[in-house]
Amino acid sequence: MAYVDKRKVLENVFKPDIFKFRIGELSQMTGVSTRQLRYWESKDIIQSLHRDGTQDARVYDYETFHKVQAIKYFLDEGYTLRASVQRTNEIFDLFKKTHAIIGNAVRGIEEINGETMVDLGVFDEEQQTRLWASIDDEKKVHYHVRAEGE
DNA sequence: ATTCTAACA
DNA sequence: TGTTAGCA
User: Boundaries of each HTH merR-type domain copy (predicted)?
Assistant: First the structure.
């Protein structure tokens, strides 16, 4: 097996931006028909990144996946398409902020005192402490605030 | 095999 | 919106 830089692996593990889907995949993932996806795009409800190599196939990103999933949810709740889009747009900036924070949350993984600890970054503004997380046999997460360099 | 557009037994 | 046809 080839050597892999641990930090480079972490950079990608929590970077869903690299996920790209074609229309058939997005359709199966969300339960929204390909016909609907193309129609929504014609109405500027969603957008795709065209040009998939040889074909002129649509390519969707991770954010669009969530947007489609949200619209689908509201449609199933009985909202009209227009209302579903409206509600989705209202809550989407929350998703973007959450996504941005989560994407930057995991800074590394270290073995501390024989226990696997996930580095969640500096804990205080003065950068004197760092937040770590571990998980026990019952899959319960425990948080630890440790002084820097300790 | 999959996606594309256009159109409607 | 579904579902075809005929392409690429």
Answer: 20-78
